[in-house]
User: Fold these one by one.
Assistant:
Number 1:
Amino acid sequence: MLSRVWAGTGRSTAAAALGTPARPEWTVTVVQHEPARACADLLNGLDETELVRACLAGTRGAFDIIVERHRRLVYQLCYRFVSNHEDASDLSQDVFLRAYRGLKGFQGQSSLGTWLYRIGVNVCLNRVSAKVPATEPLDARPHQAQGDDPAVQLLRHERAARVRSAIARLPPKQRATLILRIYQELPHQEIAVILGSSVGAVKANFFHALGNLKKILAGESI
Amino acid sequence: MKHLSDDVLVDLAEGGRTGFDHLETCAVCRARVQAMRQTMGLLQADRVPEPSPLFWDHLSERIARAVREEAIPPRSWWTVARWNWSVAAVAAIIVAVVVIIPIQRKRGSVTGSDFSGATSSPEVGRDNAGNADDVSWALADAGESWQIVEGAAADLDLKGTQDAGIFVRAGSIDRELLMLSDQERRDLVRVIQVELDRSRL
């Protein structure tokens, strides 16, 4: 609910100069008081299903809560696919935008996180198939660990770059499986839901992904 | 010798299964599990760099902006239709009050205001409203039915009316409502009530 505040009176300058009886000029300010915070608290207390329902009912701020709860996992997933901050940010935005558009199709059969992962994997695979990801320069990486020997840091970053490059050369399903299992630490069952396959297929993909990765990395003598 | 299947090897490498005596006797399977563990260890050592703490709010803002710019809201057609109808109806009425009535008044088709129940002087809201107290007092003392109008105006989402393509200046609605005659107010209350009832259907 909004409360209104009458915010003062005044005479128009022109009217005062002409000496005509001035009509008051009223300014009404619409101020949103505590109820806004109460509304945010209320939304924060909702579970995923209720939040989705609130979004669909047009409740302002409900989708913001969904974003706030899942933005980190979505960003990290995207980063794993593109290996640079800028593209990962753009992809994260794209994932949430697609989620917003498709929210009415969310059936609640899986968790919202799983559903977002599914959108994320599709968005990322589409992007990486169309564009070779550019690994960001080492000095562009935010918040690097302080205090380490620069030589050790350099070695670590070079190794990480080779690993990422090797992952990028895996077939799409193996790559997605590996990222979801190793970096997002999801159980095989959930990965199967995200990728729309069976647990057996997920494990097989994971097995082959590790094998292929080993071969690629051995070829590069890491 | 029959070797372990891929999914069993995966479980063993991840430490999800134990008690396989086969590993003690089969060097091939043992080597496979060992190689998988080694590769996994190599992968796990690579962490996603943590972005700046400000980044998360910035990302949320970007997404919120993009969502606001979406042409199609994620609602079913009947929810959209009902919401738009109710907002547009109430907004249209209020805009009519703001725009049409002053024009009529200028043409002389509307005679002086009469705040019966609000004050003995009909001029309170018009010429004699020299300070804020007078105005708010006049509003507060208006008839009971007036509460509906006030409620509608207070609940009206200005952003919503703008989304519906109607732009009003802050304060103009209250000012014009204040200047209505008794009959005009009664008509307005009736029309708004009808529209609100219809929007609840």
Note: The radius of gyration of chain A is 26 Å.
Number 2:
Amino acid sequence: MSVEENKMPKRSPFSAQIDLAKFELATEEEKRQQDVMSESTTFLKDGMRRLRKNPLAMGSIVVLVLILLLIIIAPRVVPYTYSGIITVDGVRDKSAKNLAPFTYSKLEQKYIDEGGEVFPHILGTDEMCRDYFMRVIYGTRVSLFVGLFASVLVLIIGVLYGSISGYAGGRVDMFMMRVVDIIYSLPDLLMVILLSVVLSQVITFQPGSLMAKLGSNMVSLFIVFGLLYWVGMARLVRGQILSIKENEYVLAAQSIGAKSGRIIKRHILPNCISVIIISTALQIPSAIFTESFLSFVGLGVQAPMPSLGSLANSARDGLQSYPYKLVFPAVMICLIVLAFNLLGDGLRDAFDPKLKD
Amino acid sequence: MARYVVKRLILAVVTIFIVCAITFFAMNAIPGGPFNAEKAPSPEVQKVLEKRYNLDKPVGTQFVLYMRNVFRGDFGVSLKTGRDIADILWTSFKISAKLGGMAAVVAIICGIVLGSIAALMRNKWPDRVIIFFSTLATATPSFVLATLLLLVFCIKLGWIPVWSAESNNYVLPVISLSVYPMAYITRLTKTSMLDALGQDYVRTAKAKGVSPKKVIFKHALRNALIPVLTYVGPMIAFIITGSLVVENIFTIGGLGSKFVSGITNRDYPIIMATTMFLAVLMIVFNLLTDIIYKVVDPRITFE
């Protein structure tokens, strides 16, 4: 500010005007201190700010990103596949059975001695001469894919069902919720096992398609998830909608003739998005748990496709000699589930403090 | 109250019926009958057998007949061994019930104790240690834990003999089954205990000069345990499904391993019988938990 501006106007002797010369100008910093209002913020920004302050949640994000990078980059760097027998110089190496981490088979050693280069087996090889590191990587891929896909399935069905039931209300709501009650009280894992047994016998796919590669077990797992696991989400969404639809803005929208679908989509769902996100984040680890459980029982992915559960299961055969084969997939499962659990908790604390259990 | 119990009872009966129906019709949907083995009997013999086992009747009638038999305690015979399934169920259930019961008791007692300690010593090292391990435990599948325990204590260290006809050591299976629910109960107890300790009646009790011990046990803990009670039903369900793999890993001949071997052998009558049995067990426990919960806490309304 220039001096010019602060010049006193001419003062009459009877004026009550304050003598500005006796005052000091506030510095910019002092002005800022007087700001009582915090910066205007959106719901998302506010939540993210709180999430960023949570070291556990941020750590989980870092771990998940690292795992994601690993499973994307590793197959491009490592020259082995998850299903192929290791080849040395174009020859199948049948001696590369059950190698310890970072060791080479006789054939490979010979090749190295002759000046060839062999990519190290970071986690050794399995009993069928396959690179174990790649199997763990692909197992992680499969498990993550299953977790994400199953959660999205649950999300779509649950949100659709819950919002229709909650918005319709009355008899429709009552009937739809009785159905949910019954499915909710079914012992889910038992039903999953049962239906997986049956569906894997009943469904067949054209060989070569993605479905066939995943195997009927996986597809039946998704079907079962779509049939049984959406009820929790549906209940949650319905409860939210029941309270949100009483708001005046919904009434206003109705009064100007907005259609139900539009009201649900534009006015109601955005207001319960936090609950949906949180519950999806917590659904992922439970789906991964279920998948690894089924794979462990022998109802998981089709061989030779690995999943973390099936790797842990097959590691049991050579447990005495090769315990590390159990440890790697087991640690991977724990890490992923732990990270998603902590991230889900963090999201809950950040976006919906009321939802604490 | 009576209305609530009746409502829950009806729901439970409907659920049990649906479970039975799903199981029966799902098993019937599988292509290939029980007599399609490698040594298929001649058509005449097959006809007699089908008549004997009511397989010539429509599926609906078969279901009614099967359910009638189940109510009389007749689950049919195993396809692989030819043994009476009711017999198999009963002998293996005794083992599983012992294992599951011990796991449940350990989980509840240890969970409550650890949770209370964590709440009372909030933000001190015992709290941190307990919460760290319980968070870790909720991320570990029971089959991973069971296999690791087996590896370390039975194979590497040799402290505990592997399960066999002579040595029935329940320690490791019980640990592997109870760790997850224990961790869950610990966290549950901690939150509800903290909640209870912050209530007015606790402050009043302290102000009156009631001894800290009495405040904790009589005022805080008793109220903190109500949320824990709601977890008993899901816990039983978790232990039952967990026992499927844990029994398999420790080669315990309980219901769980019968179920899993039934799956691998495609022994459908066994799968059907165990599914129904375990499902009914879970539903009944859920029903009991819900009812007891409402009875214990008078603040809850019955609507």
Note: Chain B touches chain A through 48 residues (CB under 8 Å).
